[in-house]
Design goal:
alpha/beta, five-stranded mixed beta sheet, 10 helices
């Protein structure tokens, strides 16, 4: 059939690879192609409040789809070479699907026709290390890829895709190259490999594509879920702690490999035993309400979640074995569905001025073109409604497939390369898809938003300032928390070492150049005794608290940073040894559940901590000195 005109950049990429494609006019019914997609946005991407923005500060809404295949398609049993042993009979050979049937140029032209601007590109860790050449038959429509390893072919796909102006987000989908997701050895990032290998593979990939600025994100792992015997958790500090693993890897990617990447963290997909009478649920992003990520570059975090109508908040989506009597999403009323979606994931973007506020990317959702269940069809329409109403970033699953092998894909190709799917014929999903990709939303410059971040010292340091990291260990043996550069400490918990940081306030005091002061005694307490009978660690004049350290529960030191201007000394003492003392509305959100918390007002800075070693007190933080900015 007719294809859309190739962009000049893609044509050059294909010429370099040894092939060209003939330009042609758009097919009837396809959206007009903008050949200069690359001109509509400027990498790298970052975040501002709940939005993803480009290098010019303009909104870049992720209108994405999943080009699956490189993560593997084998179902885990039988002969790997037998297509019947692969999901939907589509044997991918660890490559994005469709390369055996249509040229890269044709496939990418069809992506333009869909109206998307970005691609989530799943891969497996096994694929990265496979040195065997891909079978010729798997790249029959793209002979320039013959003889390449799966990773080399992956490189070529990424080069061609980004040359056409699409943003690419890499997604570590599976440890091994097989279809996800069940009890398949791919439940966690470290089920069939070590955490160290997972980190090394990500650092390798982030470095490999560092010079391609349209490779914009790292989606760290797909659908973390229970193994037969154990759950992944969020913040326990053990080897199955998804929060700790992603916090560490996110920082490593930004400091050791590529500071331009978005770091994308999906919530936990499943915990518990899926049987009536046993605890089980789909946590999604709910744990982030009280324990969110604070990266060394806090404008690089994106949260993600997956939703399918046949699953539910306590339903695995199974039929038969593993099925419970819990409701599926498609069984909810419109209001019940919307309330549930907000509670599980969409609150991240909807709640502004919180430590967890970030863009939320629904990186998987979908339904079959052959779906006839009225409940399922209604769910899809309602879900699209909710995406539009909330102006939410999205990625449909899946994008490409083979004609006659399942009907979930947006685009199918037959053995002759002829296309069918949502752009052709009477696909019932087409009206919902078209209104989703053309829906109005925020465009252009995104207004500045105050930043709130939390520090978690539950099990380890949380030194999130790059400037401070360069100084080395400023309180050896203690657990240390330091706000990201450009922020100040504004809140503290009475026990367990959690803190709250912000840049909010009309007159931000941060100095980007001066040195830090470590305070371990009362030598700087000069403007009066603001906590009589208590030990006070106070910053020098014209400095503000940016960090602190504890030993066990006891205060050890305060870290102070110089202000860019003289700071007032007028202030007050905020006590939180017997209850919370926080501003109305608790700006920043709940950052230490179960603990008393003290917090300065938005128009104040923290200048000191008070504590006592009296009996049963244990030198825990009891008061903050809050002064007017």
């Amino acid at each position: 059939m007719k294809r859309t005109l190739l962009g000049a950049a893609l044509a050059a990429a294909l010429l370099a690879a040894g092939t060209t494609a003939a330009p042609a006019a758009p097919a009837s019914g396809e959206a007009p192609v903008t050949p200069a997609l690359a001109d509509t946005w400027q990498p790298p991407l970052r975040t501002q409040g709940r939005y993803v923005i480009d290098a010019n500060g303009d909104r870049f809404k992720l209108k994405s789809a999943n080009w699956q295949g490189a993560q593997g398609s084998w179902d885990g049993s039988g002969d790997r070479t037998d297509p019947a042993r692969h999901h939907d009979g589509e044997k991918s050979d660890q490559l994005p699907l469709g390369l055996d049937r249509a040229s890269l140029s044709d496939v990418l032209a069809d992506f333009h026709a869909l109206g998307i601007n970005s691609i989530r590109l799943p891969f497996s860790n096994e694929m990265l290390h496979d040195q065997r050449p891909v079978p010729d038959a798997t790249v029959a429509a793209n002979p320039q890829l013959r003889g390449k390893t799966p990773l080399q072919a992956f490189d070529a796909v990424i080069a061609a895709t980004t040359a056409e102006g699409f943003a690419v987000i890499l997604n570590d989908h599976t440890n091994t190259s097989r279809w996800c997701c069940a009890l398949d050895g791919n439940e966690r990032w470290n089920t069939s490999q070590s955490t160290a290998q997972w980190e090394d593979d990500w650092l390798f990939l982030a470095t490999r594509y560092k010079d391609n600025k349209r490779v914009v994100g790292a989606d760290l792992y797909n659908e973390v879920r229970r193994t037969i015997t154990d759950d992944a958790n969020w913040g326990w500090g053990d080897g199955h702690d998804w929060w700790t693993a992603t916090q560490r890897l996110g920082d490593r990617l930004l400091t050791e490999a590529n500071p331009d990447l978005l770091v994308i963290v999906e919530g936990i997909n499943w915990q518990g035993i899926p049987a009536d009478g046993f605890f089980h649920w789909r946590p999604t992003l709910e744990p982030a309400r009280t324990l969110s990520h604070t990266l060394v570059a806090s404008n690089k975090l994106v949260y993600s979640a997956h939703f399918y109508g046949y699953t539910g908040p306590q339903h695995t989506g199974a039929t038969g074995t593993g099925e419970t009597h819990d409701w599926r999403y498609q069984e909810f009323s419109r209001d019940e569905l919307f309330e549930t979606l907000r509670r599980q994931a969409f609150f991240v973007a909807a709640d502004t001025g919180r430590h967890y506020t970030a863009p939320v990317w629904i990186s998987e959702f979908g339904i079959g073109a052959d779906e006839t269940n009225p409940q399922a069809r209604a769910w899809f329409g309602r879900f699209v409604d909710y995406l539009i109403e909330n102006d939410t970033d999205f990625a449909y699953w899946p994008l490409v497939g083979h004609t006659g092998h399942g009907r979930w894909k947006l685009l199918d190709y037959d053995s002759a390369g002829r296309r069918s799917g949502i752009l052709d014929g009477d696909d019932w999903r087409a009206p919902d898809w078209r209104r989703l990709v053309t829906a109005p939303g925020l465009t252009g410059p995104v207004p500045a938003a105050d930043v709130w971040d939390m520090l978690n010292l539950d099990h380890a340091d949380a030194v999130q300032s790059l400037r401070t990291r360069s100084l080395g260990d400023w309180d050896r043996g203690a657990r240390k928390g330091v706000c990201p550069d450009g922020e100040r400490l504004i809140g503290l918990a009475h026990r367990d070492g959690r803190g709250l940081c912000t840049d909010a306030g009309a007159a931000r005091p941060v100095d980007g150049a001066g040195g830090f002061t470590v305070v371990t005694d009362e030598r700087h307490v000069r403007e009066g005794d603001w906590a009589g009978g208590y030990t006070k660690l106070q910053c020098p004049r014209d400095q503000f608290m940016t960090g602190y350290s504890v030993r066990g529960q006891a205060v050890s030191a305060v870290l102070c940073a110089p202000a860019a201007r003289p700071l007032p000394v007028t202030g007050r003492t905020v006590w939180f040894d017997r209850g919370d003392d926080r501003p109305a509305g608790e700006p920043g959100g709940e950052f230490a559940p179960g603990n008393y918390k003290g917090q300065c007002a938005v128009g104040e800075y923290a200048a000191g901590i008070a504590f006592t070693g009296a009996w049963a007190k244990g030198k825990t933080p009891d008061a903050l000195l809050c002064r007017t900015l």
